[in-house]
Amino acid sequence: xxxxxxxxxxxxxxxKPACADHPRSSCPDRACTTCxxxxxxxxxxxxxxxxxxxxxxxxx
Length: 60
Hints:
Blueprint: E1 2-5, E2 10-15, E3 30-32, E4 38-39
Antiparallel strand pairs: 1-2, 2-3, 3-4
């Protein structure tokens, strides 16, 4: 897969590295074959603020 590498500053070939600590057979991450820079591919997690909203009012 060809992606833009920020470290190299050019489009480079990226491949999946093998990793033993990941529950699946291979990591979801990609590594640049030229310099070794990694791109971490992770699911998007939405963080929601669950605190009550505060309404500000002007003093009369």
